[in-house]
Amino acid sequence: MAEAERIPGFATLAIHAGAKPDPTTGARATPIYQTTSFVFDDVDHAAALFGLQAFGNIYTRIGNPTCAVLEERIAALEGGTAGLAVASGHAAQVIVMHAMMTPGDEFVASKKLYGGSINQFNHSYKNFGWNVVWADPDDLSSFEKAVTPKTKCIFIESIANPGGVITDIEAISKIARKAGIPLIVDNTLATPYLCKPIDFGADIVVHSLTKFIGGHGNSIGGLIVDGGTFDWGASKGRYPMLSEPRPEYQGIVLHETFGNFAFAIACRVLGLRDLGPALSPFNAFLILTGTETLPLRMQRHCENTLAVAQWLSKRPEVAWVSYPGLPGDKYHALAKKYVPKGSGAVFTFGLKGGYDAGVKLVSNVKLLSHLANIGDTRSLIIHPASTTHRQLSDAQKVQAGAGPDVVRLSVGLEDKDDIIADLEQGLKAK
Amino acid sequence: MNHDAYSDAYIRGILNTVKTIAMVGISPKENRPSYFAFKYLLERGYRMIPVNPGQAGKNILGQKVYAKLSDIPEPIDMVDIFRAAEHVIPIVEEALTLKTKPKVIWMQLSVRNNEAAKLAEAADLKVVMNRCPKIEYGRLSSEISWMGVNSRTLSSKRPRTLGAGVQRMRLGPASDNDNSG
Are B180 and A7 in contact (CB < 8 Å)? Predict the structure, then answer.
């Protein structure tokens, strides 16, 4: 036996996982394989690839070597068995649900989610016959009550967008386990640097790579991580894409053939292959470059954000600040458990001057950018009531955490004194 | 021996040492995992011998099928068992009676029988349980990384291709950077 083998740390994995030197050229940085297709070694090799009997590349809609490095990288960082890169975070959610749901099925989702996900679940999924049942992360019994025999999974966010809510992953994973269904966690706002949901019982992790993992505001992308923890064959016929012979592939049963990464394979060869939201290799390259500095950036994001949140909480113009990193915050105890290194860089605060004060602040800032994204090197600001949530009634706005007084920040990597100075002049300006 | 987590060096050592593998319980159906694994290992240069009493005398992928291990007229390095855990002990007992004892007993993904493992280990055989040699070969050769699978290996050395192909990868000698299992 060899001597004890080292388990690499997070920063090492963020740079190296999935990215050995290129097998054909020796290129050390991951090449951008900007090609639609790949030649086969011979006819038998082609047949083996199409029949899922061999591991390899066919067509970039199904897989691409640049995207594969990103998949392995994020799977390693999350502690999962395999990954699948897709065109966006929204695409990741559709592909995951497609692998589990049939028309008439239900899933339980936390009410505290990114607004785009609430829209996708409430409206787009209706066309597939996938029915969302909402539960409240502040009342765990609401998850238990929402589960029925038709429920196929539970969906939550680790740190919920627009920030400020830490979800009790471990408690909800126990509810999922008891019901025999997998727990899906959107880990976009925390990233695996701050929180690894699989360690707390999540079975599947999804990401919008567009945010902190890419980190530079230049590429849209999404990713699915298979935790390898769920037994797809435990309940006969409940997850037919995994546990039944597939007519698409000569009767293969995926979970028997691929073991603890069968879910990622199902998402690739049934979901991505047929629905089509593939990630561009160029975007994968940019996101990989971002991933290499994820630990460093998240440290600075969290440090800056805590400073900005502390400063805002002392301002006379500010009614409240919702950031779990602040002692005394409602979610501070959960933050200590799930995100001990920091509570992320996205949070909301309320202005005493209400709607007009919010409009004034986003108009007056000079360094912060007024836009709808989060997780950029640049500091970003938005007033949801006058933009993303404009179409809702006042009551709906408040329920969605987007009341007239609410401002959302995504704190960037600039010098924190400059971010604070810009907010100060923005609050004071007429 | 800890059968919950194997080191990469242990698995790599086995796959780099054995040359002849008897696969017990192989299915002749081309959509079954055993057929996949048999075909894959055959293509990687292992001498593969199918064992299935229901198929004895027939051929699977050009290889003659035997009814049982003791019918095989040549030495075997490894027995790869594709049978449910409760059927494993008699197979191991038979393997231990062979004139040339195999070096390795390998039980497939989802197959684990601790009693059978103890029997084999008492006779100085190496044992692997609840793993697939195809997946392990693909993982340690980096080929499985094409599929976004977490290979749990890091290396600053270039993975090598197998023969003339561009997408089939070779299982190299022990890597400096193999992780623990």
Answer: yes
Q: In the block, which residue shows the tokens 């360094």?
A: A367
d(CA A310, nearest CA chain B) in Å: 40
Q: Facing residues of A381 across strands?
A: A370, A409
Q: What is the DSSP string of chain B?
A: --SS---HHHHHHHHHH--EEEEET--SSTTSHHHHHHHHHHHTT-EEEEE-GGGTTSEETTEE-BSSGGG-SS--SEEEE-S-GGGHHHHHHHHHHSSS--SEEEE-TT---HHHHHHHHHTT-EEE-S--HHHHHHHHTTGGGGGTB---B--SSPP-B-TT-SS-B---SPPTTBPP-
* CATH number of the domain within which B93 lies: 3.40.50.720
Q: Which residues of B touch A80 (CB under 8 A)?
A: 150
Structural domain that includes position B113 = 8-133
- Residue given tokens 């969906």 in the structure block: A155
Each residue's pLDDT tens digit, A130-176: 999 999 999 999 999 999 999 999 999 999 988 789 999 999 999 99
So what's the pLDDT on residue B175? 61
Structure tokens at B104: 């390795």
Tokens 């604070």 correspond to A420
In a domain, B71, yes or no: yes
Q: Are A268 and A63 in contact (CB under 8 A)?
A: yes
CB contacts of A37 in chain B (<8 Å) are none
How close B79 gets to chain A, by Cα (Å)?
Answer: 19
Residue B3: partners with Cβ closer than 8 Å, 6 or more residues away: B112, B114, B117, B127, B129, B130
3-state secondary structure of A85: strand
pLDDT digits (tens, 9 = 90+) for A253-308: 999 999 999 999 999 999 999 999 999 999 999 999 999 999 999 999 999 999 99
For A52, which residue in chain B has the nearest alpha carbon? B36
Q: Where in chain A is the domain with CATH 3.90.1150.10?
A: 294-428
Q: For CATH 3.40.640.10, list the domain ranges present in chain A.
A: 10-290
Six-digit token pair at B108? 């497939």
pLDDT in tens, A351-363: 999 999 999 999 9
Angstrom distance (rounded) from CA B138 to CA B146:
10
> Which residues lie closer than 8 Å to B121 by C-beta, 6 or more apart?
B1, B127
CA distances to A147, B61, B149 from A275, in Å: 28, 34, 21
Rounded Cα–Cα distance for residues B143 and B149 (Å): 9
CATH number of A294-428: 3.90.1150.10
Structure pTM? 0.95
| Owner of token pair 């593939």 | A278
The interface pTM score, or ipTM, of the predicted complex is 0.91
Sign of CA dihedral A288, A294, A300, A303: positive
Nearest Cα residue to B41 out of B80, B71, B73: B80
CA–CA min distance B155, chain A (Å): 6
Chain A residues whose beta carbon lies within 8 Å of the beta carbon of residue B179: 5-8
C-beta of residue B88 within 8 angstroms of C-beta of residue B107: yes
Contacts of A2 in chain B (CB under 8 A): 7, 9, 174, 178
**A10-290: which CATH topology?**
Aspartate Aminotransferase; domain 2 (3.40.640)
